[in-house]
Amino acid sequence: MIFRMALKNFLRQGMRSFLNVLVTALAMVAVVFNLSLYNGFQDQAVRNMVSTDVAGGHYRMPGFDLLSPMEWEDQTFKVPDSFSSLSSSDKAEVLVLQGQIFPNRRLFPVQLRGVEMQQTLLDLPFYKLKEWQMPVDDIIPIIIGKKMAGKSHLHIGDGVVLRWRDRFGAVDALDARVVDVVPLINPRIDEGVVWMRLDHLRQITHRENEVSWVAVKESRGTIAPTEFQEPEILLKDILELIRQDRKYAVIIWVILIFLAGISVFNTQFLSIFKRQREIGTLMAFGMPPKRVVRLFALEGSLAAFSAVLVALVLGAIILGWFQSVGLDVSHLAESQIPIRENIFLKIKPVEVVASIVVIVVIMILVAWAPVRKISKVDPTQALRGRAIT
């Protein structure tokens, strides 16, 4: 009987009930959208870095630091025999050394990065390097990313002087030609990086069979003299950046819950104030105060449960539409974030259920809080409309 009475009273409130349900439902959708957007952002950033650079981890010399270029030349190593049995889809050998180019009579320090052309583990569009047939003694082919091209003002077909230091410490130089400018979604392998064929870089620096690291599809255990760097270590900076951004998402979450809670609280309090005579009548007919409290708390709680149903409908429409277009992040092209394509939501059922449960519980508590006064109401004062002020 209590539920039927609460349902009739809830429906009788009309527009007030509708607005409560709508605000709560929009809060649920916004919370899920916010969490899913961060998940999608992290998923795409990690996927792009894994596919272009990190793979399943790197085998490097202990202490190798990409941010310490003065040490690169001393931390190369001969490729262990353990990697010889791996296919081109399971490993990618990379050699990184210091170098300089001189575009338009300017000195431009660069990272010379050589990668084997047979590998298919990393998604690198270096077809023009693979097709190059001329000997290195005449001219050496290089590829740069679009960001690198913009900063160095180099274009396809441009010639530039390339200088480096070989393993014996001798400085040498050679004419290089930009055979292609490619879009690289990972800024780590674009800005300040000149890409070469691994065999070409080994030849001009006299580092036969040497690499700076070997990217692998999965760990192969301990291989001397190297140590294995897990993807989580190699992705530490981007994961930490996203983790920091998630803290701001909590603020948005609190604001949304606060607004929805205020809406339910205000409606519930106003309803009790206007229905004092009804409360007095129920008590006069023998309904215990605690039961009256349950009646009004149930009315307020119906808004939260109705909001779940509305949120499912609105969420399916809004999130479904968003998944068809994505979020344009082209404005991040100059940042260090490895995302250039549109971001799509990654919805985790556990997060969705947890968010809805938390919001429903908070809405029920907010709906119950104002009705506690009813237990102390004098029925005679309630019938006169003066019990609650």
Give a structural overview.
With 389 residues, this protein is of the alpha+beta class. It folds into two domains: 2-51 and 237-383, no CATH class; 58-228, no CATH class. The chain has eleven helices and eleven strands. It has helices at residues 2-12, 15-54, 127-131, 146-152, 198-205, 231-234, 236-274, 276-284, 289-325, 349-368, 379-383; strands at residues 58-60, 77-78, 91-101, 108-115, 140-145, 159-165, 171-182, 193-197, 210-211, 213-216, 227-229. The strands form two sheets. Strands 1, 3, 4, 5, 6, 7, 8, 10 and 11 form a nine-stranded mixed sheet that branches. A hairpin with a 6-residue loop joins strand 3 and strand 4 (108-115). It is elongated. The mean pLDDT is 83.
Task: From the structure above, extract its key features.
two-stranded antiparallel ribbon; 11 helices; elongated; 9-stranded mixed sheet; 11 strands; 389 residues; 48% helix; 2 domains; alpha+beta
SSE topology:
Elements: H1 2-12, H2 15-54, E1 58-60, E2 77-78, E3 91-101, E4 108-115, H3 127-131, E5 140-145, H4 146-152, E6 159-165, E7 171-182, E8 193-197, H5 198-205, E9 210-211, E10 213-216, E11 227-229, H6 231-234, H7 236-274, H8 276-284, H9 289-325, H10 349-368, H11 379-383
Parallel strand pairs: 4-8, 5-7
Antiparallel strand pairs: 1-10, 1-11, 2-9, 3-4, 3-6, 3-10, 6-7
